[in-house]
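=== RUN LOG ===
request id: a7f3
mode: sequence -> structure
chains: 1
length: 413
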Amino acid sequence: MDKLKKLYAKKEQLVKDMRAILTACDTESRDFTPEEEEKYAGFDKELDSVNKMIKMEERMYQVEMEMDISKRKIDLPNVEDKGEDEKVGEFRNTAEFIYTMIYRPNDERLAELRTQQMKEGSAGGIFVPNKLATSIFSVSPQTAIVRPRANVIPAGDPPDATMTFPYLDQGTNMYGGVTVSWIQEGGAKPATEIKWKEFSLTPYEVAAYIPVTDKLLRNWSAASSEIESKLRAAVIGEEDTQFLTGNGVGKPKGVLNSKCAITVNRTTANQIVRADIDSMYAKIWEDGGQYVWLASPTCKPYLMAIADAGSNNLWMGNYASGLPPTLLGAPVIWSQRNVGLGTKGDLMLVNLKYYYIKDGSGPFVEASPHVYFTSNKTVIKIYWNVDGRAALENPIAIEGSKSNTLSPFVILN
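=== RESULT ===
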């Protein structure tokens, strides 16, 4: 499989090189130069060779997979002969899809998914059917924190292309540089200029894998919920971690590291007191959005003890109701992706509609019996492309002041 990936990567580079030569000639409305003609012919010859190698490697990979299955003496489940319609129908769940991909690689239902995989331009994996991808990526406010509350941009076509978004620069002026003046009769109208900025999102590839026993995989009808739940937990956990704390290097830039976030200094080390809560609340940008507290579970003893001057508890929680507790009217979400008590980011007050997520291609799935061959286990890998960052570059200056700023992301330092 690694060799196949290298061959696909080489093929992609050859095609890019050939396209660059054609584009240059087309742009300049000219024919090939002798040097370009020689280069193009060389690339074309090498491409033919790579295509032949890919075809041979794909064939060998399929044969080796079949040999591995034979060596293991796998007892395939009894499956009665299905009608033609059901053979080309949808997979019933994720486990059946993975089982078919490993043990029945020639199944008709996989043909279209391989075509979709090639269309997306990723080598090696098989495109996960939309129905199953929805199941794996299904999220709710109880299981995922950022995605269900953020602005999510669909993959589009091409799915992994960089997408640029304009926004109003309100760092020094609430109205993005627009100046309003009162003018005397006959007076000159002042010049004004709206200030716009841009930010870009480029989906990065991220992968997760899980070893599954062959016995469990063969019993796919019972294994589906187990496999899906573990894949879903991994996807949600990693995305949330990066959306909240990612450094933006080859991955999303999280809320904690966004330039528009405002940090509030803690009153007392390793504690959270009423003054901290008040200072954070005073810094939020009020625009009607839904704010939530994201808190490390290590903060519980302090948050649950927050009280006003009259010793009235400001913490409102009724676990029997199943609803999240609230603090100053905003829901509190216990986040295991937040750092421990006393560290920057153990408590955040955020409006996540100002966080943008750009989905890319995928998800794709690969399965390999080779890694744990002697242990009768198959490694299942899922990978997808995604990026994320805050929609603002700086905190927002309030009207009449450049030094006093507000933000949809307020972090306890």
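=== NOTES ===
The domain at 74-179+190-413 is CATH 3.30.2400.10 (Major capsid protein gp5 fold).
The first strand starts at residue 126 and ends at 127.
=== END ===
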